[in-house]
Each structure stands twice: as structure tokens, then as C-alpha cells.
Design brief:
By secondary structure, the chain is mostly beta strands. Helix content is 2%, strand content 50%. The longest helix is centred in the N-terminal third of the chain and has 4 residues, at 34-37.
Length: 221
């Protein structure tokens, strides 16, 4: 009788605060609300912010503390954090955050040099639920079509994604109550076939970020 030997191989990653789970791993799940907006979403990677990772550049006002990434506002929007990977079409991210009183911060997908004619930005002010976008030197500030209001000291989750053809989507909801949400979608056809830098900027106040999921998807629903 032949002996059948089963060998199990474990790969242990260093404690970088970053892992690369997939849908097949069965260990990570996205919030149910994500399936309302994305078809066939998959997790590409997870940043837990437990330790420093090469995926992030922590600028002025930014620290890792207590398993979270924290950003303090600095005058003239000098508080910042950068994600060191590009966001491509058919990709996006999911991130939880909480801000304190009188916070002013922005989440930005951008390309090019600020305050030049070629600059492009799809950005959000999560405290006002308003866009903070720029086409060259022209700002685009539209409120989300909702009666939902964001309040300090409550955990929120944001889904931000880019579909083909310059089709941008942002959904913000209370982490513990997804029925309280706001959604914004805008198509910028002239921004098709691009990749995007992701950054966070704060002028005042303080924000905590937790559990950043990089995701890919087939299309919007």
C-alpha cells in the first residue's frame, strides 16, 4: 500500500501591518453594502496600521498609534498622508474613519501638479459631504444629494472607486448603521484610462483611520 503524505506549507509574513488576502481565503469579508454598488468585489490587500508599511507615506501631522493611522490638521492644508500605490480603473478602496469637532479634511484622488492647468482631482470633504474636485484651477464643489449629515466622534466607512471611462463613485455610511448613508457619482469622460494618486489632507482637527481595504471589481451595479 502506498503511503500518501500531505504536506502543509505555511507562509508567514513579517509584521508590517499589511497582508494580501483574497476572496478564497475566507477570512475577510467586505461590508454587505459594498455589494449594493460593486459587482464581484474582491479584496486585493488590507492595511491594518499596526506597524509601519511601505504602502504609506506619513507626512506632517500623521502618526501610527494604537493600531490606527491618525492625521492632525496643519494650517494651509499641510497635514497629509499619501498612499504609495496607484488606484487604477476597476479599483477602489474601503476605509473607516472618525473625526473630532471642527475638523476640516479631504480625501483626494488626484493627478498632476497642483494649481496647474493639467491638474485633475476627484476629491471629497467627508465632514460636509461635499466634493472637493478640481479640473485644472477650477474647483467643483457639489453636495451629496442626501439629508444625511456627518457628525464628529462617530465611526464612518467610505467606499471610493473608479470605473472605466472616468466614472467616479463615493459612498459614505455610519459604520454601525449602514442605513444612514450618502452617495455621490460623477463621470469625467476626459479622465478615462488614467491611474490616480490617493491622498488625505487636513487643515484642522484630528482624524483616525482604521482598516484600509484595496479592492477591485467588475463594474458598478
Amino acid at each position: 500500500m502506498k503511503k500518501i503524505i500531505v504536506v502543509t506549507i505555511l507562509i508567514v509574513l513579517g509584521c508590517t501591518g499589511f497582508s494580501s488576502p483574497t476572496k478564497a481565503s475566507g477570512t475577510l469579508e467586505l461590508p454587505d453594502i459594498v455589494n449594493t454598488y460593486l459587482e464581484d468585489p474582491e479584496i486585493n490587500s488590507l492595511s491594518t496600521f499596526n506597524n509601519k508599511s511601505n504602502d504609506w507615506s506619513l507626512g506632517t501631522g500623521a502618526i501610527l498609534y494604537d493600531g490606527m493611522m491618525q492625521l492632525g490638521g496643519v494650517a494651509s492644508w499641510s497635514g497629509w498622508i499619501g498612499y504609495n500605490k496607484k488606484i487604477q480603473e476597476k479599483e477602489g478602496f474601503i476605509l473607516s474613519y472618525k473625526f473630532n469637532q471642527k475638523t476640516d479634511f479631504a480625501i483626494l484622488l488626484h493627478d498632476g501638479q497642483w494649481w496647474t492647468d493639467g491638474y485633475k482631482r476627484f476629491g471629497l470633504d467627508p465632514t460636509l459631504l461635499q466634493t472637493n474636485s478640481f479640473l485644472g484651477k477650477t474647483g467643483i464643489f457639489n453636495y451629496f444629494p442626501t439629508n444625511f449629515q456627518a457628525k464628529p466622534d462617530i465611526w464612518y466607512t467610505i467606499l471610493m472607486a473608479v470605473d472605466a471611462g472616468g466614472d467616479f463613485l463615493a459612498v459614505i455610511w455610519e459604520k454601525d448603521n449602514p442605513l444612514r448613508f450618502a452617495r455621490y457619482r460623477e463621470v469625467m469622460k476626459q479622465w478615462a484610462n488614467m491611474s490616480w494618486n490617493l491622498g488625505f489632507s487636513a487643515d484642522k482637527g484630528s482624524i483616525k483611520f482604521d482598516d484600509f481595504y484595496s479592492v477591485s471589481f467588475r463594474k458598478y451595479k
